[in-house]
Amino acid sequence: MPESRQDKTYLHGAVVLAIAVAVVRIIGAVFRIPLGRILGDTGMSTFTVASHMYAVLLTLSSAGLPVALSKMITYSASVRCCQGGS
């Protein structure tokens, strides 16, 4: 059964994404090993806490808030449209 063009596109995108994740993890390891030696245990624990807080805030800002904002705008536009306002 031959693959369709769309299947090849999805497969290509998945391979590129997997390679990008691997590169990012390697860069992160190269970054964290010397940083741990420079900062020591106390500095590294502070960095880890800040990194986790940043990850949570980044997730909320990149996923949750834009979706909520778009839903609110769509609802407002639909209510305004159905009520005859502009």
Write the layout of secondary structure elements.
Layout: H1 5-82
What does this structure look like?
The protein is 91% helix and 0% strand. The termini are far apart. The protein has one helix and no strands. The protein has one helix at residues 5-82. With 86 residues, the protein is an all-alpha fold. The longest helix has 78 residues, at 5-82.
What descriptors fit this protein?
91% helix; flat; 86 residues; mainly alpha; 0% strand
| Number of beta-strand segments | 0
**Low-pLDDT windows of residues:** none
Cα shape: flat
Rg, alpha carbons: 22 Å
**SSE string:** H
The share of residues in extended strands comes to under 5%
* Broad structural category: mainly alpha
Helix content: over 70%
Short note summarizing the structure:
The protein is mostly helical and 86 residues long. The protein has one helix at 5-82.
